[in-house]
Design a protein that fits this description.
By secondary structure, this protein is an alpha+beta fold. The chain has eight helices and seven strands, in the order H-E-E-E-H-H-H-E-H-H-E-H-E-E-H.
């Protein structure tokens, strides 16, 4: 299996995790992948102080095999089985529990993915006309409606990306989740920084009343 250097991911995770513009109650997760392995933030670790022990290496072939399985319709049973399959998809020797959004990270076809909950972006994703505003302000983005977290959310994002690819003939790097922040992806951390900075710049001008935390 190809080795993957996660130094840049750790540095970016700490930077975003200590920037008050991007962090809300310590939330968010990050990942980096090649065509064989993905390192994704483990549950229970804060981005602002994360190190290599805060990431779990996942075998992408095993993780993507989840899409070939059929799961129960009852949420608790389904999520329990999906979690078991996700744990089984960890690379040998890994002991951490991957983020509940690990499967979603794996669906995004970019090397780096950074998912954050910036307060100003939450104003968009939680707003009554958030979908319309996102479509107007960020035309090359995907909007995901409110759905159950875990498998259903990952499945919804996967299908939305397939539709986007078919209509735009390119990959989406900006995915808004209703009531749940934003996923930004890119082949480099610099590309992600550019998108996040653009998001903040546009929304600073658009939002009339900003939250005061």
């Amino acid at each position: 299996m190809k080795k993957l250097d996660i130094t840049e991911l750790i540095e970016a995770s700490r930077r975003y995790g200590t920037d008050a513009r991007f962090v809300l109650l310590g939330g968010g997760n990050t990942s980096v992948k090649n065509d064989e392995v993905m390192y994704v933030k483990a549950s229970g670790h804060a981005l602002g102080t994360i190190d290599e022990k805060g990431f779990v290496a996942m075998n992408l072939a095993r993780l993507n095999a989840i899409w070939q399985r059929e799961y129960p319709s009852k949420p608790e049973e389904r999520e329990s089985e999906v979690l078991a399959d996700m744990m089984a998809a960890r690379c040998e020797g890994e002991g951490g529990r991957p983020s509940v959004e690990a499967l979603l990270h794996a669906t995004i076809p970019y090397k780096y993915v950074i998912h954050m909950h910036p307060a100003i972006i939450n104003g968009l994703t939680c707003g009554q006309s958030g979908k319309e505003a996102a479509s107007e302000l960020f035309k090359d983005s995907i909007w995901i409606p409110l759905v159950n977290p875990g498998y259903i959310l990952a499945k919804t994002v996967r299908e939305a990306q397939e539709r986007y690819n078919a209509t735009h003939n390119e990959k989406a790097s900006l995915i808004f989740l209703q009531n749940h922040g934003v996923f930004v992806a890119g082949e480099t951390i610099e590309a992600i920084d550019t998108i996040y900075n653009h998001l903040l710049e546009v929304l600073e001008k658009y939002v009339v009343r900003k939250p005061n935390f």
